[in-house]
TrEMBL record, chain A:
This is Spermidine/putrescine transport system ATP-binding protein. GO terms for biological process: quaternary ammonium group transport. It comes from Alloyangia pacifica. PROSITE patterns: ABC_TRANSPORTER_1 (PS00211), ABC_TRANSPORTER_2 (PS50893). GO terms for molecular function: ATP binding; ATP hydrolysis activity; transmembrane transporter activity. Residues 13-243 form the ABC transporter domain. GO terms for cellular component: ATP-binding cassette (ABC) transporter complex. The lineage of its organism: Bacteria, Pseudomonadati, Pseudomonadota, Alphaproteobacteria, Rhodobacterales.
TrEMBL record, chain B:
This is Spermidine/putrescine transport system permease protein. One of its GO terms (cellular component) is plasma membrane. Its main location: membrane. Keywords: Cell membrane, Membrane, Transmembrane, Transmembrane helix, Transport. It is found in: Cell membrane. It is a multi-pass membrane protein. It comes from Alloyangia pacifica. GO terms for biological process: transmembrane transport.
Length: 376, 288
């Protein structure tokens, strides 16, 4: 038997300790990551976190202050944008208004000196693949927002780039279309089997589409992981607060012995957490910390229902019901005045919950995450 | 009635422009046309006919001057475009913020001074005892004084100089409206600088180019001061010829005919220019 070496998927894109300094501040601060071939990689962060600068460095419109950037193992430092095997879908798509759709999509091929008949064939082919056959002769302003989106992707994909960069292309669309395009983008990525690097500030876009997400804040990557990891096991307080909704409870450590972390809130109520579920294990009594708890991790027990005594049970009254279909939430005020947001399933007895009703909140010690607060 | 008041307001607002057009443009042209088709057959005796127009075509000096004026104006327009486009591109696309405002202002400042004074400025530079001539002598490049005034090149310099602002302003406006990401997209898709210019920037700037060219061409064709001062007696500019007919020769009839021919010429060239660039006048004026 011959031993076969496992086929390591080569990285399409690799950044090594990338830094971009502007005169006043560091926009990108020591970012390292690699994106395997054919995967959908998202960079998620609030506006001003440096994600656009990072993307523009990959595209070649800005050059890094230090660090290295490799595409298919080849360093891209000093390579101008028109010589890089990457294409970019711009935030406002940047379709050329003076050209029709066919000329737009064929632009890149014309620059490569491909024969006219061949351009026509390949443009037709790629437009068909994005689901827009026969639009070549139309003008840009005759297409709808979603169609323009697909033309912008077709214009890049016709060049068969190694990496496709997308700069928040869904930002300009209305909500319904955005939901639809999320699914469609993911399907297109799978169909073309090209590496997509997608930047966004919308966590739901990143969670739905990505194979891997990097959460970026103040020029640094806080965490890189699958959507599940980032959502369920956020490494830092920033990630826990930025990705998804969370109740944020300021606490003080009481006891950290054994498998349980005992905390107390500002109001004095005791909380218990599984110490094993926490990233950090170094807890001192008296230390200040913050607990992050997802609304869907909170169980609601209507008054009168028989429940066994368990950890983290707090009686309270309903402060507000925010009806939002399947994403409805309820805010419960505990006796010490603290508020807790919980998901409100629109089925069963809880759907009838009204403001002022007595209700008990409960959550399992393994469901919440606790992060120490930097002193000072 | 509300609609009556608003109608009255509309006509009141329209009145100044209508008066302007009727009294200052339409009426003089009607008068000019009537004068141009009257032939003098004796003292205070006139008869209607196209003799003044035929005089233009039979006398080679007249129509040659006419053609020379047209060709020089087209050349001046082309030169202004070639010089103005890089300036406008630099102001609109490369500089940012305060530098941009400053540069734009610096283009404007010379136009605060009267055209006459500016043209005298060129004369001080170019004349035999002028700055350039003396510099060349001082540098030892020439042995005696050089006269740089009173030739076609001097006229061309003056024409380009006086009209370049009217090319730069519409170009900056249209180039400003070009989204930077379109240029970046062009490079991103593998375009060279030449290709990006040819396929993205210039098609976008076309309305500005056309309207700038129209304005510069009209200004050059109708310019009187610059060709006379920088070109001297032999400048042979058509407006100079019209002036001579009216003032020196006191032949208002022929002068009027020349005026009408100049109007026809400028209309024809603008029409041909629009046809060549494939645009309509309303589209060009509406967009820039």
């Amino acid at each position: 038997m011959t031993e076969t070496t496992p086929d390591l998927a080569p990285s399409d894109l690799e950044c090594r300790d990338l830094v971009k300094e502007f005169s006043e501040f560091r926009a990108v601060d020591g970012v390292s990551f690699d994106v395997p071939q054919g995967s959908f990689f998202s960079i998620l962060g609030p506006s001003g976190c440096g994600k656009t600068t990072l993307l523009r460095m990959i595209a070649g419109f800005q050059s890094p202050t230090s660090g290295d950037l490799l595409i298919k193992g080849r360093s891209m430092i000093g390579v101008p944008p028109n010589k890089r095997p990457v294409s970019m879908v711009f935030q406002h798509l940047a379709l050329f208004p003076t050209m029709n759709i066919g000329e737009n999509v064929g632009f890149g091929l014309r620059q490569r000196g491909v024969a006219r008949a061949e351009i026509k064939r390949r443009v037709g082919e790629v437009l068909e693949r994005v689901g827009l056959p026969g639009v070549s002769e139309r003008r840009v302003d005759q297409l709808s927002g979603g169609q323009k989106q697909r033309v912008a992707i077709a214009r890049c994909m016709v060049l068969e780039p190694d990496v496709l960069l997308l700069d928040e292309p869904l930002g300009a669309l209305d909500l319904k279309l955005r939901e639809h395009m999320k699914v469609e983008l993911k399907a297109l990525q799978a169909a073309f089997n090209t590496t997509f690097v997608y930047i966004t500030h919308d966590q739901s876009e990143a969670l739905v589409m990505s194979d891997n997400i990097a959460v970026m804040n103040k020029g640094r990557f806080e965490q890189i992981g699958t959507p599940q990891e980032v959502y369920h096991a956020p490494r830092t307080a920033f990630v826990a607060g930025f990705v998804g909704d969370a109740n944020r409870i300021p606490v003080q450590v009481v006891d950290a012995t054994g498998g349980t972390l005992t905390l107390k809130t500002g109001g004095g109520a005791p909380l218990k957490l599984d110490a094993a579920a926490q990233g950090s294990a170094d807890w001192r009594p008296g230390q200040r910390a913050e607990v992050f708890l997802r609304p869907e991790a909170v169980d609601l027990l209507p008054a009168g229902s028989e429940q066994a005594e368990a950890a983290n049970m707090v009686p309270g009254v309903v402060d507000a019901v925010l009806f939002n279909g399947a994403n409805s939430t309820v805010t419960v005020r505990a006796s010490d005045g603290s508020l807790m947001t919980a998901a409100l399933p629109q089925t069963g007895v809880l759907a009838a919950l009204r403001k002022g009703d007595a209700v008990t909140t409960r959550w399992h010690p393994s469901q919440a995450r606790c992060y120490p607060v930097a002193e000072g | 009635m509300a609609s009556d008041t608003s109608k009255l307001g509309f006509y009141l607002l329209l009145a100044p422009i209508l008066l302007w057009l009727a009294l200052l443009i339409l009426l003089p042209h009607v008068g000019l046309f009537l004068v141009s088709i009257s032939e003098k057959i004796g003292p205070r005796e006139y008869e209607t006919g196209f003799g003044n127009y035929s005089a233009f075509f039979t006398e080679p000096l007249y129509w040659r001057t006419f053609a020379r004026t047209a060709i020089m104006s087209i050349l001046a327009t082309a030169l202004t475009l070639l010089l103005g486009f890089p300036i406008a591109y630099y102001i609109a696309k490369i500089t940012r913020g305060r530098t941009k405002t400053t540069l734009f202002l610096m283009c404007m400042i010379p136009f605060w001074v009267s055209e006459l004074v500016r043209t005298f400025g060129w004369m001080i530079l170019l004349r035999e005892t002028g700055v350039f001539s003396q510099f060349l002598q001082w540098a030892g490049l020439v042995s005696g004084p050089v006269e740089m005034l009173y030739n076609d090149a001097a006229i061309m310099v003056g024409l380009v100089y006086t009209s370049i602002l009217f090319m730069v302003v519409p170009l900056v406006t249209t180039l400003d409206s070009l989204d930077d990401s379109l240029i970046e997209a062009g490079y991103d898709l593998g375009g060279t600088t030449t290709a990006v210019m040819r396929e993205i920037v210039i098609p976008h700037a076309m309305p500005g180019i056309v309207s700038g060219c129209i304005v510069v061409f009209m200004l050059s064709l109708g310019n009187y001061l610059t060709p006379i001062l920088l070109g001297g007696k032999d400048s042979l500019w058509f407006t100079g010829m019209i002036y001579t007919q009216f003032i020196t020769r006191f032949n208002w009839e022929l002068g009027s005919a020349f005026g009408f021919l100049l109007l026809a010429l400028s209309s024809l060239v603008v029409f041909l220019g629009l046809k060549l660039s494939g645009r309509s006048l309303s589209e060009t004026m509406g967009r820039s």
